[in-house]
Specification:
Blueprint lengths: L2 E4 L10 E8 L7 E2 L6 E14 L5 E3 L2 E3 L8 E15 L1 H7 L11 E3 H5 L1 H12 L3 H17 L6 H12 L6 H8 L3 H12 L3 H18 L4 H7 L5 H12 L3 H4 L3 H4 L1 H4 L20
Antiparallel strand pairs: 1-2, 2-7, 3-7, 4-5, 4-6, 4-7, 6-8
Helix pairs in contact: 3-4, 5-7, 5-8, 8-9, 8-10
Length: 284
């Protein structure tokens, strides 16, 4: 069993925000791969050590934020006796919570100290001082809600564009989406990337990949996944999986972070994988 995982008993009051608590069991392997997904990831570390390495080879210790669709070379190179709270933000919410900084990450990561300075340390210290996960989830939710409430609103067209991409599992055609919004394709492309950090076509590709890879983890064969998720053929699916993860459809299903997604984030699928993952849900 790699981690103890604790989930909130109620959803965040901020739509587009999910969170889960992770506790190390002392057997987290080095070089752990993080799988890209269509959300901005915040990691708040309040116990032990997590050292991350990005595609450039730069290492960071402590809490960090990873941009939308971070690259396949982004890994945990060392994780020792850690406790952390992982928060996933939809790109629309991330734009508000991060003050627009998420659009500048370009699939990379920065430490929370770089982003928020002393505020990041204060939040981690407060999390560590609390005795239950429910208290930690409540604190994080209040913090996220407060940052969002004080942020300037995003253009409704960009918000609608993201919602359409997510609702269609990446299947909407971008030129049709621009017509729906009453924008030119060029304007949609520019505003979407400036605000959310990826061009709309890339965002749609990421959303489709996310649904496809979870279909594979759930046991669906590659041919069925390719057909159901709108890929031209299995080779098309293979190229996307390799582009986002560096792996093949056959090997990506064994990645630990995908194996726990049904527990931590509510994806349908097996409750455990080869006995390596268990969940400790918060008491109802």
């Amino acid at each position: 069993m790699l981690w103890d995982i604790t989930c909130p008993t109620r959803p965040s009051r901020v739509p587009g925000v999910t969170m889960a608590g992770f506790g190390d069991r002392g057997i987290t392997p080095p070089g752990l791969r993080l799988i890209p997904h269509p959300a901005v990831t915040l990691i708040l570390v309040f116990g032990g050590t997590i050292v991350m390495e990005d595609a450039s080879g730069r290492r960071r210790t402590g809490g960090f934020v990873a941009g939308l669709g971070f690259g396949e070379a982004f890994r945990a190179v060392r994780a020792e006796a850690f406790e952390c709270l992982q928060i996933r933000l939809s790109p629309v919410v991330a734009h508000a919570v991060l003050g627009g900084a998420s659009a500048e990450l370009d699939g990379a990561a920065v430490t929370l100290d770089e982003l928020w300075g002393r505020e990041a340390d204060r939040v981690s210290e407060r999390l560590g001082a609390l005795s239950t996960w429910e208290e930690r989830f409540a604190l994080a939710d209040d913090w996220i809600a407060g940052r969002r409430a004080s942020a300037a609103p995003l253009e409704p067209e960009v918000d609608r564009a993201w919602r359409r991409i997510a609702a269609t599992r990446g299947g909407v055609r971008i030129e049709h989406l621009a017509d729906e919004l009453g924008w030119s394709r060029k304007r949609l492309w520019s505003r979407f990337q400036t605000r959310l950090g990826l061009p709309p076509k890339r965002a749609a590709k990421l959303v489709r990949f996310d649904h496809a890879v979870h279909g594979l983890v759930a046991g669906q064969d590659a041919a069925g996944v390719a057909a159901d998720r709108g890929y031209a053929d299995q080779s098309h699916l293979h190229r996307d999986v390799h582009e986002f993860t560096g792996l093949t459809p056959a090997t990506v299903v064994d990645e630990p972070f995908l194996a726990v997604d049904d527990v931590a984030w509510g994806w349908p699928g097996p409750r455990s994988v080869a006995g390596s993952v268990t969940a400790a849900r918060a008491a109802e």
